[in-house]
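Reopening this ticket.

The earlier resolution said the output was attached, but the attachment link was broken on my side. Pasting everything inline this time so it's all in one place.
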Amino acid sequence: MPWQFHPYVLLTFLAAGIALMAAYHSWRRRSAPGATSLTLALLMIAVGSAGLALEIGGRTLSLLMLSRKIQETTLCFMPLLWLHFVLVYTDRRRYLTPKIFLSLGGISFITLIVILTTERHGWFYRDIWLESQAEFILLKWTPGPWYWIYTVYLYGLMGLGIWILGRKLIHLPRSYEGQTILLLVAAGLPTVLGFLYMVGVLPTTCPLGIVGWAVSGGALSWGLFRHRLLDIAPVAYEAVFEGMSDAIIVLDMRQQIVDLNPAAQRLIGKRADEVIGEKGEAAIAFLPDLLRACDGGERTSTKITLGEAAPADVGPSAGVGSYDAVAVGSFDVRCSALYDR
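Inline output:
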C-alpha cells in the first residue's frame, strides 16, 4: 500500500486549516502594509503542512520524494516573504530595493529548479534511500552542494527578520507588544525546530515539525484576530515619536532611560544608543532638575532653566552630537506618568 493513514496526519490537517483561515483574513486586509506577503507565507504554511502529511503516511520512494519536494518548495520562498513582511512592518522599506529583492528572489527560483530536478544531478539530494524506523518509513539522503547554500539562505534570512523584529520590540509601546511577540513565535519556533532536526538533536521520528507549523499558523491567526496585526502597525507610532519637534525622554520606574526621540538627542548632545539603559542622572546632567520639576503630580506643566554654556550649533538643523554643552534657556516641561511601563 503506497500510503497509510496515521493519527499524526490529523495534526497536519489542523495546521493547514488554521493557516488557510488566517490567510483568508489576511487577504481581506490586503490593502494594509505587508498583508500580501503575510498571506502568501500563510499559504506556504498550509501547502507545507499538506506535504508533511504525505511524508508521514507515505510508504514508497516516489511518494516520499514528492512530499519532500512540496515541503522544500514552500520553504524556498518562505524566508523571502518573511523578510519582506518584516521590512514593511517595521517601516524599513528603503532596504527593499529592486536589486536586493531580485537577487534574493533569484536564489529562491534557482533553489526551486534544483529541488524539482534533483534526481538528475544530485545537487540537492543524492544517494536517496528509504529507511524503516519504528512505525515510520523515512526518506534518507546525502546532502548535495546546493542543499548547504539553501540552508544558509533559509536560516540567514529567517534569523535576520527575527533580529530586526526583536530590536523593534525594545522600542515599541505596550499596544504593539502582543502582535510583535506573536510574530517572533510564529517565525522563531519552526526555525529553531528545523535547525534542531538538521543538526540531529531531534530524531526524525519525533513529529515536532507538525507542532511548529501549527503553532506558526496559530500565532499568526491570534495576532490577526486578537491583536489586530494588520490593522495597527507600529509605523504610525514611530513616525509621530521620531518626527516631533518637542524633546521627549522616557524613563522607567528605576529612572533608567528607555527611549528618547531625535529632538531630545539634539537637546542633550548624545545619541540614543549612548544613553538608553543608563541611569538618567548619570547620562543627562540636567535630569535632576527635570525630575524635581515633575514632583508635583502625575501630570505636571512647569518652566525651568537649563545649562550654563551655549551649544555649538543651536539652529533647527543641528545634528545629534553637535553640542559642546547642554542647551541653555528657559524650557516648558510637561511630565506624564505611563502605566504598566
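Reporter confirms the inline version is readable. The two ends are 60 Å apart (CA to CA). The first helix runs from residue 8 to 28.
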